[in-house]
Automatic annotation (TrEMBL):
Organism the protein comes from: Aquimarina spongiae
Superkingdom, taxonomy of origin: Bacteria
Taxonomic classification: Bacteria, Pseudomonadati, Bacteroidota, Flavobacteriia, Flavobacteriales
Cited InterPro entries: HATPase_C_sf (IPR036890)
Protein's recorded name: Histidine kinase-, DNA gyrase B-, and HSP90-like ATPase
Length: 65
């Protein structure tokens, strides 16, 4: 298992959309980008798992292998 965590603003999108490409929230001009979508595809290719959790103030991404 491998986890990365950092602090930051609350998500402006739902957790279900976090791994989708270029998701925007409302009228916001910024998007989620491409990074987590690519990570998810690589993780799935190798039959690993990926999970997002929020435990204030932490955002935690965990990859299981």
């Amino acid at each position: 298992m491998f986890s990365i965590k950092n602090t930051g603003e609350r998500l402006k999108i739902s957790e279900d959309q976090l791994f989708q490409r270029f998701v925007k929230s409302g009228g916001n001009i910024e998007s989620t980008g491409l990074g987590l979508s690519l990570v998810q595809r690589i993780v799935q290719y190798y039959n690993f798992s990926i999970q997002y959790r929020n435990i204030d103030p932490w955002h935690i991404i965990t990859i299981g292998f």
